[in-house]
Specification:
Layout (H helix, E strand, L loop, with lengths): L31 H4 L9 E2 L6 E2 L2 H14 L3 E7 H4 L9 E7 L5 H8 L5 E8 L5 E7 L4 E8 L11 E5 L17 H24 L2 H23 L8 H6 L18 H21 L3 H6 L7
Parallel strand pairs: 4-7
Antiparallel strand pairs: 1-2, 3-4, 3-8, 5-6, 6-7
């Protein structure tokens, strides 16, 4: 079975514009004292699922920004995700990236962010040799997703993110968003792997291994959504449905027919046939008819 590997080159989860009314964008090179935001604190609101009180993500952004301003080995801080594109709400996670100078280390960052509020759990997820995704879950349910990297990693502001702290102007110029756009070879790869996954779904369904079939069907559907996102020209198309919904672009109505309520041979075969019909334009675009014939996929001609 071919295994799809996501080629996500985004610095972290996708974000968008405009800037939220959480913290002001600082002036590059301004002294730390002028970079500390002073927003009015948000009133605490009860978490209906737990009964605990949460002040929402705005307080986390404020604390994170103040810490970055006051920490000499922090060079820059950028905000992404729904908050970064001005679409956040009280349920939003805080998605951010921070660039460190020599002298800063992950342990010190973790110590700082776990001091923002009582913490339930922390995960350190490697994003490469010098970059770590630091996920902090607070007891009130709020989440901070912080990508920690050397400051020189960033040569500009990521697409659809905002600079909260930029002590040397490293984030003053936007990065070219087309850096994340898939070229023809990458789009062909997505279409190729979608066909492989669809074929695997049929194979596993005929064997009676329905959970493996559903996994392959889901993989094929996700790749199709990446192709649609690329076709629509949205930012970070490799995130598929996430990027489409963030951009307010529709997902084809027919895709709902690929959702299987009760796994079984016929339901999975029907779902695969619908998905293959949706994939047909991409199959033709990338001359993959022979692949589909070999996989016994019934592509409309």
């Amino acid at each position: 079975m071919a295994q799809h590997t996501s080629h996500t080159s985004s610095p972290y989860e996708p974000a968008s514009r405009p800037a939220p009314e959480l913290v002001p964008e600082p002036t590059p090179g301004a002294p730390a004292s002028t970079l500390s935001p002073e927003p009015s604190p948000e009133p605490a609101s009860p978490d209906s699922s737990s009964g605990r009180e949460s002040s929402g993500p705005a307080e986390l952004v404020e604390r994170l920004t103040r810490w970055a301003c006051e920490t000499p080995w922090v060079e820059w801080l950028e905000l992404a995700g729904s908050l970064g594109r001005g679409a956040g709400d009280e349920l939003s996670d805080v998605d951010a990236g921070v660039g460190l100078l020599d002298g800063g280390d992950l342990d010190a960052v973790a110590d700082a962010v776990t001091g923002f509020a009582p913490t339930a759990a922390v995960l350190r997820q490697p994003f490469g040799p010098d970059t770590t995704h630091l996920v902090s879950i607070y007891q009130d349910g709020r989440q901070l997703s912080l990508v920690v990297m050397p400051c020189a990693t960033r040569t500009g502001l990521a697409p659809e993110a905002i600079a909260l702290v930029d002590k040397s102007g490293r984030l003053a110029s936007p990065l070219d968003r087309t850096t994340w756009d898939p070229d023809a070879a990458r789009r062909r790869e997505w279409a190729f792997l979608a066909c492989i996954a669809a074929g695997d779904a049929l194979k596993h369904a005929r064997r009676g291994t329905y959970w493996r079939a559903l996994r392959s069907l889901t993989e094929a559907r996700d790749l199709y959504l990446q192709l649609i996102a690329a076709q629509e020209g949205v930012v970070f198309p490799q995130f598929g449905a996430v990027s489409l919904e963030n951009a307010g672009r529709p997902v084809p109505d027919e895709l709902a027919a690929t959702l299987v309520g009760s796994p079984g041979l016929q339901s999975i075969v029907d779902a695969v046939n619908v998905l293959v019909s949706l994939l047909a334009p991409f199959v033709r675009e990338h001359d993959l008819e022979g692949l589909c014939d070999a996989l016994r996929l019934d592509v409309p001609r």
